Amino acid sequence: MINRIIKSLFAGISVFLLPGLAWASSTDGGKLDLTDHPLGLLAVGIFVTAYAFVVLEEKLHLRKSKPVLLAAGLIWGIVAWYSGQHSSLGPDFASNAFRHIFLEFTELFFFLIVAMSFVAAMTERNVFEALRAELVSHNLSYRSLYWITGIVSFFMSAVLDNLTTALIMSAVILAVGAGNVRFITLAFINLVVAANAGGAWSAFGDITTLMVWQAKKVEFFEFFAIFVPSVVNWFIPAMIMFFALPKETPPPGVDNADVKFGGWITCILFGLTIAITVSGKQFLHMPPVFGMLFGLGLLQIWGYFIKRHEHRNASLAGATEGGSYNVFEIIARAEWDTLLFFYGV
Question: Who's near 100: CB < 8 A, 6+ residues apart?
């Protein structure tokens, strides 16, 4: 449920942060204003209807990308039909506007695919499962776990984005919470606040900061100016909730998960990819997607060595098949429904 709410909030905010839609002007200087036109009201109605289906996703079991993709096609069709009826707009008005938006979305699309692929690769290598096992095995109190998961979420969201952080850390909280409803409830609230506050001071923090950075509205290091306000935004609610936490210690667990071969190198490659992405934009003036796709190439090369390692181990063990690691299968695990959802929005 928390996942659904977060996705809906991000998407709703992103509507207002999308770069200028070029509806107001075209190459020939024509203007398109449907503010008081019935077709404009129809377009708004289509959007609201589609978003109603998104809100009801859990009840209808209809993936959120489906209604918004359909709505996007209908709205662009309305724009194309209307512009085609007015010679002042020119025959290519709608197509030019669509290409402008689609190019910006494509950059964002591939950026997110790479980021999601790295997260999927680290998940497959048991990096996050090892974190869970490590916390469980240390026999920490609920209050200690509360602060640890909050701090990790705050800083992790600045790199992985707040949605991914919420998905990963929620599983960790459920594991370390040992069924204590009060702890899990407060830790989940702390997680959502920490992930959103932590994502605000980094260009990688969430979809909106990424779009602002990609559109050159704010430079990468300028986001750091709100680091302290972000800390305050998380810490004050966290401190208030802290006093309601149980003082007990959960039952001791067992460290039953290890990072697979190549997991830590995958983490290093992700950090290197972020560094290349930032440097490429700051010094080479290349779009962020340039550095991310370069990093995807690094991940694919490293995947080749992981596969060889697994194949060699399987051969030594006498298995007839081995080396099943496949980067393209990992890429396929990206949140495609979410990616297409953003296109529709």
Answer: 21, 22
